């Protein structure tokens, strides 16, 4: 069996997942009713709600560095509630650089995506810009092809590459096959990368296979099978997965996931155990929701011994608000109760997950209760990313007057030796 070239493996393992990260789910592509659902934002599910997603802020923490890497992603919708564009800015506080990208969508009359234009930049490579133009073509079944023209622009040169992909769906509208013809400029041996998916009776992924063909010879890169266990209401209880790297190889356990729910059957925690080159990795992911069941916060912890966990990621989701007065009315109903709770709990041991900002919205004093019983630094950041206020407190508690600042949204961050908390408030 002929082995694939190194560049083919890099393309299939590294480039392909990054490139496909922005692909909307089929329901978004093919259905006008679901056109306001934005997918691919998180690793655990698609964010899809009646309220248009406004922005996402992702904090990535590293054990050996005090400041997190920060990604800010903003979503813009047109008058028909179709996703118009996405803009992201990424700040790497470890290697000290910023990067970003923008995505712009156009649609057919039916509401299906017709074209997508993407551009990206990195201030470490000031003269390099990557531009991608994607065109979608659909068949009667809803499957489609995507033709992409990728362009690298530097100060002295421009390079272009065309990539052709095909997405096929089964009768249940689940993705069954994905194929990419690897350009000859990358691999001249007529290389084809393919993924095949199968699902159980509930619709959860039961197996997947990734393979690469070169010059007519096929190499099975990775094959994964999933054992899915359900609770009542077809809620996932746990998933065990096994993988092997070729059809003759031995199966070995890859991951174990377990799901936990609240009384509304919302997934509030997910644990995962996986293997790495240095041993087992344990993850704990916590999810918070608003009153209309939108995911508003996601926190991920990692551990090597399942006992001592460290903060790895914190993701905040914000949804477009139709009217600040409406938000104010909703929050004022809960403000008095929250203040009473805070007075009762003020001198008790804080819960590290009990981070409160109230009242929100506010026209003056903002009460910050971080849950950290340790010296903390509180920053207030405006919509332009500028720190407009900083204070140091002894116990993670502060009352801050926002009246001198312009109306709008502000990010509140609290940094302590116990962790990192973030929140968003509206000042009117």
Number of strands: 25
- Count of separate structural domains: 2
Secondary-structure element order, N to C: HHEEEEEEEEEEEEEEEEEEHEEEEEEE
Largest sheet: 18 strands, antiparallel, barrel
Number of alpha- plus pi-helical segments: 3
Shape: globular
| CA-CA gap between termini | 67 Å
Percent strand equals over 45%
| Average pLDDT figure | 78
Would you identify the regions where 5 or more consecutive residues have pLDDT less than 50?
1-51, 322-327, 342-353
Helix content: under 10%
Structural class by secondary-structure content: mainly beta
Radius of gyration: 24 Å
Please characterize this protein's 3D structure.
With 428 residues, the protein is mainly β. It has 2 domains: 6-319; 324-427, Immunoglobulin-like (Sandwich), CATH 2.60.40. 10% of the residues lie in helices and 53% in strands. It has helices at 6-20, 26-30, 324-345, and strands at 53-62, 65-77, 83-92, 97-107, 113-122, 129-138, 144-153, 158-169, 175-181, 192-199, 205-214, 217-230, 236-244, 252-261, 267-276, 279-289, 295-303, 310-319, 356-358, 365-369, 376-381, 387-393, 397-401, 408-416, 419-427. A hairpin with a 5-residue loop joins β12 (217-230) and β13 (236-244). It is globular, with a radius of gyration of 24 Å. The model is unreliable at 1-51, 322-327 and 342-353 (pLDDT under 50).
Brief summary of the model shown:
The protein has 428 residues and is mainly beta. It contains 3 helices and 25 strands.
Structure characteristics:
single chain, 428 residues, mainly beta, Immunoglobulin-like, 2 domains, 18-stranded antiparallel beta barrel, 4-stranded antiparallel β-sheet, globular, disordered N terminus
